[in-house]
Amino acid sequence: MSDAVQSKDAAQKIRSGDLRALARAATGVENRDPEALALLREMEPFAGHARIIGVTGPPGAGKSTLADAMAAELRRQGKTVALITVDPTSRITGGAILGDRIRMQRHHGDAGVFIRSMATRGCAGGVARATADLAQLMDGAGRDYVIIETVGVGQDEVEIAKLAQVTVVVLVPGLGDDVQAIKAGIMEIADVFAINKADLPGADRLEREIAAERRAPIIRTVATEGTGIGELLQAINQTPAPAPRPLTPDPRPPTLDHLGIAVNDLEKAVQFYEGIGLKVERLETVETEKVHVAMLPTADSRIELLEPAATDSPISKFLEKRGPGLHHIALRVPDLDGALARLRESGARLLNEPRAGAGGHRYVFIHPASTGGVLLELIQESST
Fold this sequence. Notes:
With about 375 residues, the protein is of the alpha/beta class. Helix content is about 35%, strand content about 20%. It has 14 helices and 15 strands. The strands form two sheets. Strands 9-10-11-8-12-15-14-13 form an eight-stranded mixed β-sheet. Strand 10 and strand 11 form a beta hairpin. The chain is globular, with a radius of gyration of 22 Å. The N and C termini lie far apart (about 55 Å).
């Protein structure tokens, strides 16, 4: 049997509700098995139906209990659910420490709830490398909701915003001034806030702290009792997903301007690219982004090498979390203001207002949550 036929056969089994086939595919996706990835491509046309919810927050906030309660309420509503829990990696086996799945045993035997624990395998940001693919698999399998719970390691769990349509940040009373301390991290990615354990003292203060920092729905819950879970799901369902409808294109399509590559040492990186025949067109420092830039033209576009000019540069933070590599893709558009109007209308997340960058061109960055997982830069096409 050919690989294509095997993929189609496995996809049909999963679509028909075969949980063993789904579990095997999930294991393959997590292990980056080529056959499982081929199956994932086979199921891609069926994806796009599920509501993908991210649940993140500091340790002890009750994320697992809240996700479990959400799944139970969704089942009462007749919806099917996939729970993806990203757990710490076992130092012994290299797999997930299955604390979250153990706490969700009440769903055992319910075919409408598929629970999968994933190991972080050294990834920062609260999720694993294969989490996005696993969410797509569950979506293609026909699940109505995919709930992704992050590992719970601290305020830098912002990667979930790239995967989820709606991100729920779970906080608990008693944080006090800690809300100020974490506002530059997970506070910024919340579409909905859940004050869990809201029966504890300090819930009123916490709600005031959150409301002072962000304009987003704030729902009080007591997950152990199921209190507020219906209201939380209602707030989630009322939050628009990124890019809810197609955009009207410009008369002329965008063209690739450059690929932005983050590097630790600009001089060494330039030497490499010059060694394969490229030449530096321009060297400059962009003060607004605190970055040193080297532009190397190719036949139809450019490579933009980016070295941090300060420790608090966005490129410096990128290198700390991910290391050197592709930072963003840049497209030239004939009408930047028109494109931005359509993006705002669609609900896309813009990271800045138009401003001058390298070479004096006006540009805007679009959040990866709206673009399919990659940071996208739009540049106004030159009229000259």
